[in-house]
Amino acid sequence: MARANTRNTSRHFPGLATHAAFFFAYLYIPILVVVALSFNENRLTTIWTGFSTDWYWAVLNNSDVLRAARNSLIVATFASLIATAAATLAALGMAQGRSFRQQNTINATLALPLLIPEIVTAVATLIFFVAIGVQLGLLTITAAHTVFCIPFAYLPIRARIEGMDPALREAAFDLYANERRTFLRVTMPLLWPGILSGALLAFIVSLDNFVITFFVSGAGSTTLPVYIFGMIRTGVTPAVNAVSALLLLVSLVLVTISLLISRKDV
Amino acid sequence: MSHPVASSSLWGRLLRRWHAWATIGPGVGFIILFLVIPSFMLMAVAFMTQGPYGLAQMPLSLQSFRELAGFGFFGWSPGNLYTLWRSVWQTTIATALVIVISYPIAYYISTRPAHLQPLLLLIVIVPSWTNQVIRAFAWMNILAPGSALTNFAYNLGFLSEYMGLFPSTFAVVLGLVYNFLPFMVLPLYASFQNLDHRLIHAARDLYAPPVKAFFQAVFPQTLPGLMAGTVLVSIPAFGMYVIPDLLGGGRSQMIGNLVARQFAESSNWPLGAAAAMLMIVATLVGLLILRRIGRRAGGGKEVVL
Q1: Where are the domains of chain B?
Q2: Which architecture does CATH list for A76-221?
Q3: B292 shares contact with chain A (CB less than 8 Å)
Q4: Nearest chain A alpha carbon to B210
Q5: Which stretch of DSSP H or E encloses residue B56?
Q6: ipTM of the assembly?
Q7: Cβ partners under 8 Å of residue A53, min gap 6
Q8: Low-confidence ranges of chain A (pLDDT < 70)
Q9: Hey, are the CB atoms on B210 and A125 less than 8 Å from each other?
């Protein structure tokens, strides 16, 4: 929308660009520091002595790290798949369900995992699993992750459905396509970017989750963030920087892809 | 979107209702089973008594709430109340700093060419999607003894030798600000997008200095974004666990740490559950206060929330 009043007024506030430069530096310097230190040869993490990729080899040959990484991938894959399936169904149902009045309650329930403080969710889930007598492990982590993955998957899918032109579906019906055919040929192709974007976001939040995982993981079911936390607590070697840099890279790439997909117009 | 069997017959209504619950059921069911029911269990545990291994047992009592208020075996101690107070003021300072830093950024982004704005927003958001533990750890590196920033602080006389800038309250607030900046920039940016720039021109044409122009011409227009951002920042900051745990010492722990400790090290589940309940109550009270402030500042109008 081009309006006369959107002319640039930033020249009235000097120093904006400098502030912005400091801001972006503040945002990215910590991430760059972790990556830079992961290539540091020295055992003492903060003293730079030379470039080396040894820590990456140490990490890739560490069976504990690899097991934690495998656990993280298993959990994130299952949690994001289940959550995305549930979220897609829910979004489709909500779009059709004008007829029922509980819309607000249902939307609030689906957003609930985002509203409750993470630490409260963590200890409540722990109490629940202990009370029903389930052994803490990958299964409990996956269940707990699926819960908070649902809103992350739901929001982009719902946004996609709301942005859809109802005329497209109506056109399909006018051309004698039945419900199934319309769904497969019109709704799904249009919805697909939203689903993919939501699934990626769910995958990332699961992969990166620490607090809830920390409380519902048992012995032998450590995920990568929990393992990294343990490494930081027990004594820092540059290996932490290397694992962290790898996890950072995965998150950065996936989230960028997801946000770019969801930006595409309907 | 209308349903193809959108007839008003009884059969049509039943089919639609069944369809609605078959689609919404799994997601809502999952959340009820693994979040709503556990939350009620948490409440129940808060009213139980500490049993063997710190687990909860009957009978029901208010013992955990007395302990939370500081009444223990050795008489009254203010430790827990300090923790609660600290959570409030560390959150307040961090939120205030986030607001001050975010305003110019949101404004700056909203005045860039239209094709650059999504990219700049992306750059702002992306770090918040990375692992929280790693981001806190990154600050541990930067604030550790011997780092450039620490040496700088030492040369300015802020630190004694061999000290680091963490663990400290300073580090916790810094970490909180770092963590929550994007949650303020986004809603503020949304407000700035609809800004009526003519008011700024008018203010400046009438020789208002930039500060006055800001408070008279910009600030009132961005109030909805500010209120939304304040909620998005202060509520999760108040419940933060990782940042005070890694960046703070014993004197900068927050209520989230108090909760965690009862389930990890010291094992007193009823006390932990009571603290968690207090956290939720405090969150709701905070929301109500923010809502009231928003309404008053908005001149009686409902401002978001």
Answers
A1: 10-67, 78-297
A2: Orthogonal Bundle (1.10)
A3: no
A4: A13
A5: strand B56-57
A6: 0.86
A7: A39
A8: 1-13, 44-47, 97-101, 236, 264-266
A9: no
